Amino acid sequence: MTSMYRFGSRPESAGSTPKDSVGYRRNAERESLMDRKLLLIILDGVPYRNFRRLFGNLEGWVQSGEARVWKLRAVLPSISASCYASIHTGVTPQEHGCTGNGNVFRLSHKDIFSQVRAGGGVTGAVTHSFWSQFFNRHPFDYVRDVEYDEPESDTINHGRFHTMTGYGHDNQMTPSDVDLFATLTNLCLRFGLSYGILHTCTLDSMGHRFFHDCTEMDHACFVMDEMLAPFIPRWRQLGYDVIVTADHGQDERGHHGGRHPLQQETALYYFGDAEGPDPETVIDQLQLAPTILDRLGAPIAETMKAGSFLT
What we know:
The chain has a single domain (22-193, 202-236, 255-260, 270-296), classed as 3-Layer(aba) Sandwich (Alkaline Phosphatase, subunit A). The chain has 15 helices and 9 strands. A 9-stranded mixed β-sheet has the order 4-5-3-6-1-7-8-2-9, with helices on both faces. By secondary structure, the chain is α/β, with parallel strands linked by helices. The termini are far apart. Residues 1-26 are annotated as: Disordered.
């Protein structure tokens, strides 16, 4: 059966310089200041049970030993913006101050972007516009900030953002996830990212609309898994560690924000050479920032108190 998706040529081998990537070659010297490279893929609003039950490609890599998986527990409130801020700063919402989606501002804490830049790395983001507002500038200007390349930025060098303006129950306003995965890959090839993040709200929006015990959500998770799968080997062959996780879960009615396990717990898949904890370990979301920085060889901010879960 022919796939409905086309992903271009075969991946370059690890350590090679893509022939079509002048930007990649231009940044090679700067990139070499980092020990390693890593991509963080955040699939918004996927509860632990959906990852483990419905993502056959990810689970197949776990079964084959090419990936490892743990349960991850989000901060409270388990609401999207608060989790985004905590994922990147390594501190709780009670400390960084983002208490929900209606309270978005330029954060004052050091974060993954700033620390990678301090270590000489190149950063990129293909995400909802909240990430740009938290870590680069606020408010978000639709024309100026939808796409930028700022090599001298202290945080995000290469940003490609979407706002989901007009989002509602009957119109998700979410981009195609293949387009997002391809855009991140494009940034890796053109600019030699040391650290890149991708965030998509597709499954979170589907959960709010259809809830979870339904064919619509089963199919949405299946399609997400199928669309993501071809990119993971390509990123790995480009030399990246890859983490796939969610910001939070959702309960049966598509709700999150509280401390119920369905709302707060998700899965974390890791593709890379580092050693991890026992499979039964529950990872604290605050561990993500220091773990990523430690893996990259970037300085860990003094405010990031949680320990790394990879060694």
